[in-house]
């Protein structure tokens, strides 16, 4: 079997990461790479780390160039996918790494992104838990549309969803502070993202409930809890190219013990190959998952503040974007879930 | 006037930073530098960045070598200062950059540090606010003993103390997540602190109420609030040599507006030369204060979660240690508060 | 087919990298991991990024634990392999990632390493060129012993060997300045390798002909040139975990043109899958090869100084150590050369 | 005495560094800051680390805004100063941190910069040695025009000039490989300078004699040697915001010993307060001089290659730009040479 693939936005960080991972996928053939301003150039000039596809020519991102593939990955700016998607023929699996199809609420979309809502697609987080105990994986089988979660929501949802699903966390007053590597801010040249600026320092941004990922995180928690969950989310920019460390804290329902908490998380992820609760005493580090599709977390119970603190690490470009996209593609196509995703974390 | 100074623990990061700053202090003469294992060596071999004192010889850390100076800085491991201090003659200003004399509660000390409490000294955070509106600065005048605050507590206390003092923050359920540069972990060679390990990644540590700085933070907040304040504190290690970014969030008392919050912080720090609330719309970055004694913060109000989020940056080795120590020394000796502390942040 | 493998020194950076890569090798089964001080511990506690082998128990490094495997990788300190190797049974492929068996000259060994020479094994650099035009690849087929080249020599030899082999470079006065990531200095805790020290700065070391890699580089160049080649080599430590950038310059034989130089390098590497000369106008970056087994270079001709300057990048732990070792293993066992080595560079 | 100063290009890295240092200069008052695109904004929004001048308003860079100051610093793009300078009144000390007035040869200027030569000004490297033994310092006294050297030339010239001046180095075949922090590439937003790109990796650029700093380095060496000196210069970009490590190697005149070399360098710099040869056995690190005006070097003799290798570190923005500019200003105005330059290196 050989599955033909097109990657739109191949010269950005998300698109480049899809290519990097697909280069090791045994069932996939990358047929077409597209971009906007760099159409006509050699891919090796724009994404020189992906040697395997270096001699491909970048094409323009149009319905025509994308048509005729089994799978189309869209790694485009927010709002750019709607027109393209409308022209995609039946039978094409379209995987949108952008935000356009993540939110259920058209109102939230309009409030945070300012444009018309393009609709809601199946959410590409296979390990997400519903109150009934089933996982989102089931909803991805045979789908032809996948909305890849945001990177912050991926880490945040994996961190606390088991507790909300099991009813051991209070739905009010969740606080999340997350640090992300700079690739999360994209490849567009901006002064505040220059290496001279980001290297050796940290800064917050979008503080105060304004970040676009807040409604996506609340949407997931609320679905898992079966009731509205309210989140204070603060993202910070860390001096590293990749990785997210999310520190997610929530109040524990009275009477629940630390062991009960651990049991809930173990039950949720014990059989997962990409999501892991560390043994007690070991803490996650973003470099454990650098370049890999794993999410690794540790859970602590602070009896003093009566909160649980779950720290969760992912690679924002892998489990947080391209890896999650490919994992979901594998599920949709009935392939083993880990094809193209066997790489371990790059450390040191 | 020339004030004679001895620095104990001169070859560690805190001691080296005291020397770096004192090299530009016009009223001070560094007469003696001491250390433990490196006694007898040339200081230039151990702290080569401080050219001015490169030819001094490191002496052993004993009561004898430290006696006879106007000011003695102690930058020693926790628990090492008690014996030395007992031997210090009257009239010597002793400034302890270690933790030994910070906590009021002997019980907390024993619980978190495991040894006998050495006593409580005036706390070297001049900008700290008491319920009556006076500042800690007053308590440092003419003192002969100063306990330099920890670096995390410095950032955390500066961030939220105005709100507790003014009664606009709820005392329950404060959540702080802070990122520190690696110098906060000291200069002792440990595998997990190797550059290969820390570079390019982030990790949490001491999660779950166990960190030694939690009681120090709660002590300060509670003093300012006039009632017990309870904190969930999570420190993380960031891939940078210096700097702390503290994200401190607390619930806002019902009815308080964002403008009222800003007014409270402005009132607290508007006349301070080292502590600043940024204009609206600008966020702090640790590199704004790299190498300088400034603390810079921004305040956001999240009406959605009904929390205020104050992000505060300091250089952990300057305002968080050596700079705070020298500022307090200046106050104790009746000197202008900014002598030796004129350096601006090193950026980029 | 399943090839059984043991990795000695599995908890160091070189050993950990062998494991990371073997986790994706389809024909290999890692049966045994050994170390010295950490025997008895769970591998996941020591190399947590390699999830696949996390539950293996580290054994002691002895002849007994290593015996009975098809392939044994030795990632041990210099001088530690001789005794182990003596006890290895016939038919075992032993691959030494240490320096012990690289040098032909027992005299040079003694001078630079201070111990008795353990003998010379086939040199694991498949792309190395001999004057006759054959490559070292031929000498690795069916061998039972492989000496993995040093990381600096790998980058240096790949950079200039084509020119020496083709007789277009002068053998005198080669100058190499190379920057290495900190993992090249190993995982032993040392103060000068702390992240606080290495982050944000560069430093030279071992300047003045003293570096142990100089005789290995000269040995290779001299073999390729068929006459003694003399090198001035200066290594520097760069603030990054991985990667080598070697800037290798040599005088060009009079009358040779830039195009002739390019033709020589193209002829040498045009058919190689892991060694590449970039198109004109593009420069190598260490992140192009981060985590991958590629070596990427560019060649410039400076008519002004009549020198060629070849800049070559590798990942010191992959092509410079573990990847080169696995590539050589594949050749020795008659497997496709790229098994386990399909990963592209991790960038950004 | 209070000297009025204007800084043109105050929002770039060089201009910002002039301000950072002048903030501690006791004899100077910064009256005017100018820029191009950001005129009208608050300086604190653009250079927030320099708290002292945060409330100044950026003005447009014109002859009018710059006129009426004792000293004008120009930190502008190449080619932008000529028109401004023409309008400066008599009696104003103009210090150009750009390249326009560094080269003696109008031909070289045209070849490397492509515009008309603006003329040659006294070269702001006080420690530069002439064959007669006098230093450039003498030529800066009472001058009204100063051309600040480039950052690479500063490190390169300080490294080898003593040897050329003393006749102990051969003038042919000098090879320099230098690593620079990213601030050397300026503050203009470019994709290849994003933190995601620069962090964690190294790359060369401008290889093959093309770099604009080559003629400036050769000009200096040739002046010191009294005969033409020819250089192969390769710059590389290192993952750090600041700092240059230059590795400069030259052939030693036959018969000269290592001790004779050390004596020559000691004689040249023994009395300098900003340029230092380290004691034997110690190597320079860029962080020794981070933020300070020092240049620190070590000299090695490689008898094997018959070359001396001098490794020299500076902060590219201090001794390499703004610090050198202020040091030269102090000399021109008859002030103590170290005013505003007392800061020691920021380390760790």
Automatic annotation (TrEMBL), chains A, B, C, D:
GO terms for biological process: L-arginine biosynthetic process. SMART domains: Semialdhyde_dh (SM00859). Keywords: Amino-acid biosynthesis, Arginine biosynthesis, Cytoplasm, NADP, Oxidoreductase. The active site is at 151. Its EC number is 1.2.1.38. Residues 4-143 form the Semialdehyde dehydrogenase NAD-binding domain. The keyword Metal-binding does not apply. InterPro entries: AGPR (IPR050085), AGPR_AS (IPR023013), AGPR_dimerisation_dom (IPR058924), AGPR_type-1 (IPR000706), NAD(P)-bd_dom_sf (IPR036291), Semialdehyde_DH_NAD-bd (IPR000534). GO terms for cellular component: cytoplasm. GO terms for molecular function: N-acetyl-gamma-glutamyl-phosphate reductase activity; NAD binding; NADP+ binding. It is an enzyme of class 1 (oxidoreductase). The keyword NADP applies. It is found in: Cytoplasm. Pfam families: Semialdhyde_dh (PF01118), Semialdhyde_dhC_1 (PF22698). It catalyses: N-acetyl-L-glutamate 5-semialdehyde + phosphate + NADP(+) = N-acetyl-L-glutamyl 5-phosphate + NADPH + H(+). Pathway: Amino-acid biosynthesis; L-arginine biosynthesis; N(2)-acetyl-L-ornithine from L-glutamate: step 3/4. Its main location: cytoplasm. Belongs to the NAGSA dehydrogenase family. Type 1 subfamily. Catalyzes the NADPH-dependent reduction of N-acetyl-5-glutamyl phosphate to yield N-acetyl-L-glutamate 5-semialdehyde. NCBIfam families: argC. This is N-acetyl-gamma-glutamyl-phosphate reductase. It comes from Rothia terrae. The gene is argC.
